[in-house]
């Protein structure tokens, strides 16, 4: 394997990991508040078509990403009202939200199917981009790649260094106690769910405007479920989410390059590698019950209403 090919694979891995980072970090914040939202896949698809449609019709990808974030927030708001206000089951509501998002995105995207869009341009930093090996690996990506790293830093800092992060984690551990001492549990959970929705919407828009700059029905191809698995894989730690996203991004890219290298392996087997890796990693992680119990928010998925 040549150096150029290796650099191309690593660069592709970074791009493939970016939507997973956005979606998984958003879901991590949601779950640290004690809310389990399984609607990430559907939210990503709605964000993908919203970002693509607005970006294509207006010619502005900035507006496209704002529209995608707003679409993600609206999807998350539906989930929040149903689960936090009306006390519906979080698992069933999240699955229903995914089914709704899949259908809604397919309906809205009919007139946009197959149309190309000018994707996000790669930044070119003078001098730094021309450094051999390091230049292509560090300084030739689009702005969302760098934004994903910035999001990780912000989430890590917020959860570990701020009063708001401490409150969020306290709500995730024991909402009843947090409410008893006067903290606004419902507002904290609403904010966490809406933040997760915005991140999922942006992740979806990245798929349709950067990773594969066109709209195709079912574009997310299960990445929302991988993002959910990443949160468990990371045991609710932002740094591990980042590492896990690059790991799964690398597996995704590897199966594409393996087909190009002409390996005598069925293409269906190679295509299933990212999802098989997800299952294997989850099985290995979940064998260590102590780690899961120590890091999992104690109230995850459990309903709470201040009037009850």
TrEMBL record:
Membrane topology, as annotated: Multi-pass membrane protein
Q: Alphabetically list the UniProt keywords.
A: Cell membrane, Membrane, Transmembrane, Transmembrane helix
Q: Where in the cell is it found?
A: Cell inner membrane
- Superkingdom classification of source: Bacteria
GO CC terms, sorted: plasma membrane
One Pfam assignment: BPD_transp_2
Q: Name one GO molecular function term.
A: transmembrane transporter activity
Q: Where are the transmembrane segments?
A: 6-26, 38-57, 63-84, 91-113, 133-159, 190-208, 214-234, 241-257, 269-286
InterPro entries tied to this protein: ABC_transp_permease
Indicate what this protein is called per its UniProt record: ABC transporter permease
Q: Which species?
A: Solimonas marina
